[in-house]
Predict the structure.
Amino acid sequence: MRVLIAPQAFKGSLDALGVAEAIHAGLAAVWIDAQFDILPVADGGEGTVEALVTATGGQFLETEVEDPLARRVRAQWGLLGDGSTAVIEMAAASGLPLLARHERDACTTSTFGTGQLIRAALDRGVKRLIVGIGGSATNDAGAGMAHALGVRFQDEQGRYLPRGGRALQRLAKIDISHLDPRIQDIEVIVASDVTNPLCGHHGASRTYGPQKGASPRDVEVLDRALARFAEVVERDLGMEVADVPGAGAAGGLGAGLMTFLHARMSRGVDIIFDAMRFDEHLTGTDLVFTGEGRIDAQDVFGKAPIVVAQRAATRDIPVVVIVGSIGQGYEACFEHGVTAVVPIMNRPMAIEQAVTQTAELTTDAASRAARLIDIGRAAKDAHNA
């Protein structure tokens, strides 16, 4: 029997590779003669770099950059196995996990560090760049990112604007004369499932600003600032970005990437699965195990485990999902290729305790699932005898 193990991260407790290894340990303890293929997956957010680099036999790299508040941090990114494609996660440089809750300030945080990561990829001579933009702490329309690549943002007096989304309300001119010319030679693909426009009721500021520390008043200020950014982009650069689906992703970084890097927005999970040649790993597979921290009704809208199940279903391969918890409406997943859902909690415990024991609980859940599968096979054999 050949088993493909393809989970995504259990956010906040165990990365995708750790989850895969824990599932493997549980299955191997029961199925000692099985063959296992370990393939961590992601959907454009946390774990994107790890999934793509691991799947393609690429190389992990680290670059010192500035975090959302201009402090120095080491950010991981990667080169894929083809040697010409780089992958970065903006959250590694400009993400919420880099800030304590009391440090969140959507008015002043900047994507400058994300631009530094892009510059590091350019220094490697890549021809293609995949950017995962989930988990941002910023709301600056990617102005910080563009600044790191040579773009200058000025007010009416010709003074350079400070970093952060709030400053964009004073934007009068965008100077791209010093934009890194190497950008013209690369293809940039943005991995994101967000379709919000840049401004307005469903825009970046109103939809995501509060979770980044924006007060109701801040939200209004930031929305006006991003609208001003869109106006100046249209006037100075001849591009309309305000209402483009996905422009509001990552606090408007989607708009910035489209404006200054001519990036193409695409569903994150499709970019990643295609880049890692996921379907090729299904050839000869008898059973698939995937997993995530929580499964609920929202999974059917493109979460990685459901895409695993959907692709496996085209080949009639059963799929078991190992999960940290089960949410409302999860039953909808059974209509999208999922065969069974197995939670890792094996006894009453506090969430904090489960988080510290995720690997052990995941291994136990995989073992339980394997034994239940064996019971089903034995019953089927007895029935057919």
